[in-house]
Amino acid sequence: MLGKLIKYDLKSMNRYLILIHAFLLLASAAMRAFLTGPVLSAGTDWRSTEAMLSFTLFIILYFIIVSAASFATSIVIVVRFYKNLFSGQGYLTRTLPVTSGQHLLAKTISGSIWVIVNFLVTVLSIVIVVATPYVVSQVKANNSFIRTALGITGEYADMSWWTIIAILMAMMIISAVSSVITYFASIAIGQLVSNHRVLGAIAAYFVITTIVSIASFICMAILGLLGTAMDPVKEVSGMNYFFDISSFSCIVSIAFSVILYIAAYWIMKKKIDLE
């Protein structure tokens, strides 16, 4: 039954999100052909007014399109969860022989899949827009300088780009699941506000994210990570600091995700019986 729920949720979201991300890739291809292709090419005078103006417009327009696709993905996931379980459609959902836990797990998995897809499509769109032959050749030619600038030195000097990408992918997956659970927990908490459920969900989201931010800030200060970031004298390897911060962020995300998932399940099970 869990597999059927995931398949049904994905099918419901696909009709919107496939079109949105197809538009993002189409827009990226158009920008590559008419803007960054001519600008990011060998022999281009970057200091010319025309080149600078074109590139500035590209950054603004591209940022808007990418942000819109990411925002739309979150909205579709949130609306799907709310309408399917807590709106009028929820009465039909409750007739299914499915537990609250199965509903929550299925929607968490399907929502996380689309957040991950959004991230991968965004990365692909950046590659399409930026990775002109001239840029690629310059990156290859200055690989050592780039690695040094990023702090991939010392004990990390032999670390491959594929290893770094794998680490970033793992972090992205954790972040995707965490963000979806935060959305769902906020909506579940909002249902406890009988007269203003949507406003309650929005307020719950801001309260949760604020608590997480404050807790993270305090923990970073206690662990000395904050001081390391702000100390211009202390020399710290870029990769060392990256691993410290990323490890800390993953632990915090997992811890709060577990708490929020349990809270969402408890509310759906005890306060809003979906079974």
Which features does this protein show?
mainly alpha
**What fraction of residues sit in β-strands?**
under 5%
Number of strands: 0
State the distance separating the first and last CA atoms: 14 Å
Rg calculated over all Cα atoms: 22 Å
Mean pLDDT: 82
In N-to-C order, the SSE pattern is HHHHHHHHHH
Contiguous uncertain segments of 5+ residues:
229-235
The global form is globular
Supply the helix-strand structural class: mainly alpha
Main beta sheet strand tally, sense and closure: none
Number of helical runs?
Answer: 10
Descriptive notes:
With 275 residues, this protein is an all-alpha fold. Helix 1 (2-39) runs parallel beside helix 4 (100-130) and helix 7 (161-190) packs across helix 8 (197-223). The protein is globular. 82% of the residues lie in helices and 0% in strands. The chain has helices at 2-39, 49-86, 89-93, 100-130, 133-141, 143-149, 161-190, 197-223, 225-230, 238-271.
